[in-house]
Amino acid sequence: MRMTSLSHGAGCACKLGPDALGTVLAGLAMPTHPDLVVGTETGDDALVWRRPDGTALVATCDFFMPIVDDARTWGRIAATNAASDVYAMGGRPLFALNLVGWPADLPLDLLGEVLAGGLDAAADGGWVVAGGHTIDSPEPQYGQAVVGEVAPERLLTNAGASAGEVLVLTKAIGTGVVATALKRSDEGAADPGGPLAAPYDAAVASMCTLNADAAAAALDAGASAATDVTGFGLLGHLHKLALASGVTAVLDVASVPVLPGVAALVADGFVSGGTQRNLDWVRPHLDPGGHDEATAALVADAQTSGGLLFACAPETAVEAVDRLVEGGHPAAVVGELVDGVPGAIRLR
Which pLDDT does position 244 carry in this prediction? Predict the structure, then answer.
């Protein structure tokens, strides 16, 4: 069974668009509390709560419809993606609860495979999955609510970056493009020699890679701000980081790592609706610097289980990138932060 045929969206591209989400949140009077260290004000990846002993908890949740056709792989990707928000805050996942929506007419053995994939990711990351909640749903949905811990003095948020720092990206982009091509394909990635084989294999390997090493490298580099790159794309998450930090971002397009075969897929028109929403949202803040629409769409591509994007001093960035590359992660310095309009992005 092709799991992707059962959903209207693909992975994090099915998220509510940033414009729509902002409209909803703007109408809410969000609560405050002396122990709420990080809430929704700066668009961060997770909630941070101060405990009586001075340590802090990190809490987040994430779920989506199938992004690949194999049930167990989808479960692994979804759990890896959910824990990414904890790593993006500089934390370590402790435990999680499963979030499941499942059509009544879909075989339950497939659901067992999805949950097993989630357990695989948790075993790799050292967190415990114990329970959760299921509902009868028109489309299959899976993810986790993850709770972790973080030392307050090592907490990473969107805010805190400064002009003069550089930007490090720890994974290649393009998973949204591959997911869109897979969903629109008659055969998906079933043909080992087909045009989707290499991009699909690279995308799956990337989405199944935990951001634990990336978080450790960011902390050791003295990162001042960080986020993970998921549904709002590289441009969207960079805009949020630059806005919260009060700086302008300069993105070196040629330095951004891209999954193999993705540029050709973009040229063939495999751009998701979520990516287009991302681009429309960030366009008022974007100076394309002469780059064409396909390039802009690529750096706005809605990622699933993407890498970390963090800001740090130029000298420590080089050390962090070298360390990650030696460990098999396609990390790179992809730009810098400068004085200017908060949240603005310039491509060069």
Answer: 95
